[in-house]
Amino acid sequence: METNLLPPAIFLMGPTASGKTALALELVKHYPCDIISVDSALIYKDMDIGTAKPDAALLAQAPHRLIDLIDPAEAYSAATFRRDALREMADITASGRIPLLVGGTMMYFKFLRDDSADLPEADESLRAQLLEDGLRDGWPAMHARLAEVDPEAARRLKPMDSQRIQRALEVYLVSGKTLTEHWAEQQSESLPYQVVNLAVCPPDRKRLHQRIEQRFRDMLGQNFVSEVQALRERGDLHKNLPSMRCVGYRQVWDYLDGEYGYDEMVEKGIAATRQLAKRQITWLRSWPDLHWLDTDDPDILRNTLKIPAVKAIFSASA
Known about the structure:
With 318 residues, the protein is α/β, with parallel strands linked by helices. It has two domains: 244 residues, Rossmann fold (3-Layer(aba) Sandwich), CATH 3.40.50.300; 62 residues, Histone, subunit A, CATH 1.10.20. 53% of the residues lie in helices and 9% in strands. It contains 15 helices and six strands. Strands 3-2-4-1-5-6 form a six-stranded parallel sheet, with helices on both faces. The protein is globular.
């Protein structure tokens, strides 16, 4: 099908604390858009403060799909996200509205755009064993183990990228084929939408760092530590779960474990969030057909609507 005959969708991307939600709310307020969250932290229930999850008042104004999906003890993959997002996009399109996908989890956006390999389901017992091996031997040793069977995957991953190293080894041990082989065999299903790609970010990196620090301190003022304490006291969670690896949660957990004091926890949390933002911006710089928007632009909505592709979408929906 020709691209211009496909239904429209908007990807609204950006690093953490860049102001994506504020622009999304303006679009929803004035145009027939429905929000789908593209955030690997917002999928977890009972993780509200540290994920900057929209509160009840905001959700009443602009409902978000794909938040509060699973318990923090459960697993959720980028491939599962693609399936869920396509279902929600189809539902929104069928209602005559425009899917507005908002978030900073670039891997989710990439899987949605490019499709994913047909990978085996998670094997919880094997996953637990690999985690135990990684904690005992260290993740650089596990990275070397991966390099022996899938050198290409190992080249793409850093030696401390525990979650992805664990998954790559799991795929090989479950299926007998490497992650690289699975990707090579995939038959990609193109995204059946005409997508406009937007990114919100302050052009000045210092300004983004200020926003990150302010938001982290605001979270602490909203009892973020108590939120993590409640999760910790459940007894079935640990800090190596994907949910507890979310930025901020790991640092507060370590603080509660007595590994360092409050002030150091704050600095580590801010630093980890800055590193996340840096990775997100790196992803975005390689994203094709991307329209950049300035977080602090007082006319950001009007300038968004000046983008020809955005203007075309909303003119057609009028």
